Amino acid sequence: MATGSEAGKSAEAVLEWPKQDKKRMLHAVYRVGDLEKTIKCYTECFGMKLLRKRDVPEEKYTNAFLGFGPEDTNFALELTYNYGVDKYDLGEGFGHFAIATEDVYKLAEKIKSSPDCKITREPGPVKGGSTVIAFAQDPDGYMFELIQRGPTPEPLCQVMLRVGDLDRSISFYEKALGMKVLRKKDVPQYKYTIAMLGYADEDKTTVLELTYNYGVTQYSTGSAYAQVAIGTDDVYKSAEAVELVTKELGGKILRQPGPLPGLNTKITSFLDPDGWKVVLVDHADFLKELH
Predict the structure, then answer these.
(1) What are the contacts of 7-13 at 24+ separation with CB within 8 A?
(2) Which entry of 27, 78, 96, 154 is annotated as an active-site residue?
(3) Longest distance between any two alpha carbons in the chain, whole Å
(4) Is 145 a catalytic residue?
(5) What backbone phi and psi angles, to 5 degrees, belong to 180?
(6) Please, what is the Cα angle at 28 between 152 and 258, to 5 degrees?
(7) What would the pLDDT profile of 41-94 be if each residue is shown by its tens digit?
(8) Which of 31, 55, 120, 222 can bridge 89 by disulfide, Cβ–Cβ 3.0-4.6 Å?
């Protein structure tokens, strides 16, 4: 049996890996009721590209991947259509995705001309700030924040999720996944605090925006939004770190690390302390799957 100091040392070594690993946000997965309508909305209104599509009739679902650049360098949205299911519960916890654009007003006008998408907040400066934003809603009710920004290699810039204890979540994503806090902002007049976490600067990558609303400790996660996938150099070492952190902060491993049947891509999956699902994917396997 390991002595206290040996156990402590091995835990330290396990938690060293997330700091060294070269992780990357790969895609967000969620369910839609009408795949063709959503693809049309994203390509014609938001300006995304349809990157690939796969139909799996034996499992009765179809996936479509959309984004602003190739999946080996850019973040993508993975839409899942389950045969015959046209409606999902969005829950209270999922917030929005965000798109950075050089002209929010112009993008909002384009969205308004579509029968499938709508603007729910007119373009204009954010409350108490100068950044121009707007909000759009897709056919299933998913919200997209439109943010005015200069040119960026990654216009698909945020996944916003609500959490019940911001310090706990920050600690979890830092320790288990090696993310960095890029920015934190408390807005007492509207009773919320946000933290942006990620692997590179906000204007260069997709970040996780975690929102804490004062006094709200729990949210329903719904059945619509599924998970975010993150690339890792080693799913086994990564799973070890996650497992250790879940013992301290909550959450749980859902799938032990190993290859997926049929695909051979190595993955591991887990829930964070709020029940949000994350899948870690072997980055080399992921690239093989693409090409």
Answers:
(1) 11/244
(2) 96
(3) 67
(4) yes
(5) -115, 145
(6) 120
(7) 999 999 999 999 999 999 999 999 999 999 999 999 999 999 999 999 999 999
(8) 222
Give the pLDDT confidence score for residue 1 in this predicted structure.
Answer: 46
**154, 209, 240, 243: the active-site residue:** 209
> What Rg value do the Cα atoms of the chain yield, rounded?
19
CA-nearest of 130, 132, 160 to 144 is 160
Backbone phi, then psi, for 80, in 5-degree steps? -115, 125
Q: Please, which residues have CB within 8 angstroms of residue 286's CB and are 6 or more apart in sequence?
A: 26, 231, 265
User: Cβ of 184: how many Cβ atoms within 10 Å?
Assistant: 13
Q: From CA 180, how far away is CA 194, in angstroms rounded?
A: 14
Q: What percent of the chain has pLDDT over 90?
A: 92
Give the model's pLDDT for residue 235: 98
Which two structure tokens, joined as six digits, stand for 247?
């013992």
Active site residue 158: yes
Residue range 268-290, pLDDT digits in tens:
999 999 999 999 999 999 999 99
109 is catalytic: no
Q: Answer positive or negative: Cα dihedral of 138, 142, 143, 149.
A: negative
3-state secondary structure of 44: helix
Element (H, E) at 168: helix 166-177
What is the mean pLDDT of the segment spanning 110-134?
Answer: 93
Q: List beta partners, residue 252.
A: 271
Give the pLDDT mean for 248-252. 98
Candidates 145, 154, 240, 243; catalytic one: 145
Query: What is the reported pTM?
Result: 0.95
Q: Does position 239 have pLDDT exceeding 90, yes or no?
A: yes
Which is catalytic among the residues 158, 202, 240, 283? 158
- Region 152-168 average pLDDT: 98
CB atoms within 10 A of CB 61: 16
